[in-house]
Amino acid sequence: MFRPLELFIGLRYTRAKRRNQFISFISTVSIVCIAISVTALITVMSVMNGFDSELRNRILGAVSHVTVSGIDETVQNWQTAVKTAESTRHVRGAAPYVEIQAFLQARRPSGALIRGVLPSMEPNVSDIDRHMVEGKMSDLTDRSWKIVLGRELALTLGVQVGDKVTVVVPQFTATPMGAVPKLRSFTVSGIFELGMQEYDANLALISMQDAERLNGFDGPTGIRLKLDDMREAWPVAQELVNKLGQAYRVETWMDTHANFFRAIDMEKKVMFIILSLIILVAVINLISMLMMLVTDKQADIAILRTLGSTPRSIMGMFMVQGVLVGVVGIAFGVLLGAVLSLNLPALVKWIEHVTGQTFLSPDVYYISELPSQLLWSDVGWVVLVTFAFSLLATLYPAWRASRTQPAQALRYE
User: Fold this and answer.
1) Distances from the Cα of 108 to the Cα of 82, 134, 165, 201, 229, angstroms
2) pTM above 0.85, yes or no
3) pLDDT tens digits for range 129-139
């Protein structure tokens, strides 16, 4: 016999005696419970990863990864700054912009953030052109005095493509009647929908040249950058600070939306801890099974002790039994969890088609499809936590087995 004695006997103990099939049933139930718990945890983590990724893509589709602005109101010599930024590692695109806080008046009034853009360069840093519901961003030409609105903002104002919108900016002009704010009439040429309330209800786009004239600027207020990896935002910002000098201020998406994404990460961690309790409940069945197995094998333990087996050896036999149940449950759970996570969007669509019910209505939720993203790092953590729980669950029953006294166990045999 080339394998260790503890492993050999532990595998033999996987099935109880014929006169006590209930222990085998409990062992099967423990495997099933662990498998279901692992499947549930992997699936929930994948769904949360999917929502996290979807939110990041939607938010960062409108927000620049890195923003370069001037110390004064405008960025001087912005063409050189754009070339310098585009020559930096990880930078995929750069585009200038002008931002204005304004008041919009149509059928109903609303405040909004107006962003002046160059239609030829804006697609390099944002995905708004891909989310146009009506019209085209290329219509925002110099002196066209056209405006593109977010869908929610257009509904608030009560306008459609072709309607007029009066834009009032906080720039006052001296007149015989006193100081009056500067205003201008724009024609709605397009409507976009990013699926994020923050932008669909508060953002409007106009030509950058029109924005400069409207606000009295002689250049853009900043330059927006898009990176090939948003996690490189901080190193890129540090490199740009060294290249551009003290005349520019550099900010990253982490500075403007860090709290939001930290909240998502915290929610994911808390959900992992809460769902881990389900695994703990499943492991309790494993403890019950091992305790009954120890009682069922009292005579065998006593005989092994009289033949010279040490308490540590007896303890190892029952730990092998508990770990084996845990490993089998983890294996089935990982398999089912991976299959379910990878096919969950299609499964949800099939259920919606069969039942006629919509789980995420587009009228209520901005993300109308259930996303799922399986990360093998999360699977590794689930496997590690479950295996640790299973290993800890074997300690007390195995210790009780190692404390068995041969004389007392064989007294009534």
Assistant:
1) 39, 21, 10, 14, 41
2) no
3) 888 888 888 88
